[in-house]
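Blinded run. Sample ID left blank on purpose so nobody reads anything into the name before looking at the predicted structure. Input follows.
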Amino acid sequence: MTKARPRSTHRHGRLLALTALAAGLGAAAWSLRDLPAAFGRRPDGEHEERVRDSPQYRDGVFHNAPSTLARATTTPDIDRGTVRRMLFERAGLVPANPVPTVRPVGGPGPAAEGVAITWYGHASALVEIEGSRVLLDPIWSERCSPAAHVGPKRLHPVPVELEELPQVDAVLISHDHYDHLDMATVKRLVRSQSAPFAVPLGIGGHLRRWGVPEHRIIELDWDETCTLGDLVLTLTSAHHFSGRGLTRNTTLWGSWVIAGPDRKVFYTGDSGYFEGYARIGDQHGPFDAALVQIGAYDAAWADIHMTPEDAVRAHRDLQAGLLVPVHWCTFNLGLHPWAEPIERLLVEAKAQAVPLTVPRPGERVDVDNPPELDGWWESVG
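Blinded prediction complete.
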């Protein structure tokens, strides 16, 4: 005959269960504590008025420039077939072996008197140009996501800690998507750097919420320029979209012209291929180098992300010299195999006689003397 368990034992079990549930809910709440702040903030006051006055802004949102090469849509076309591929076609999307990274030896020296580029992975890069330094779209977090434990995770470690970077003259942001604008990285840069953040219109609202001082925020519309010592930075157009939550296109997106006294570098940010590259090349080129987006493309969003073949075409339109591919390798954001962007880029660049360098994450490239291609990715993918 089975004896009944004492009532106090049942109460103890319920107490333990409730304690475990409370602990689980508390842990979940703690992990999501920064979520509202990560979404950022819309412009307000005088900043909102400047947004409303932009030629790119109407009906409450920003718009792409008219194009005969890309549709006006600013959001991906996600149908049931695309969702099915996202869920079930996962083979080859991450590298089979560790991605090699390069860590700088010794402390930072003076900035290059010519042009040098250090790619840290995805779209994060440091441009040295005639004695100045510019940091592009820095992402140093483990995930590109509003939450610390959910979202695309790094496929390789950061090559160098953010606080070990040399002092820069500007931090440039192309748009406010999580793989280009990261709250945690911005907060660290507020502490470790003194440089201003140059951003497209509206993104200043996010920065203000995250504690960036007003004097370190420069907001620009397309074709507007700011001068910082010998640096001339111009925000140019791109064919993309923006948004960190359910609301789309309340901040502007763009590309960047980075000019020293005699040398120039271009950064595409994220964009579909469009006529704007030819206009930028005519107005601001030629460029010594261009950092061009090549990854996370798909037919479902062909108007907002370039294929590798588009990237070569854009590079030629820009009248650029050395092509430095970015927006690949670090986060799994597309539906193509991990190494496919660089393999397709190599074929097209060779066919079009476009000079190309493919650095490892963390590797510094002298634009006037780039290293020969060594196919390092072949043993990784």
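Unblinding after everyone has recorded impressions. The first strand starts at residue 57 and ends at 58.
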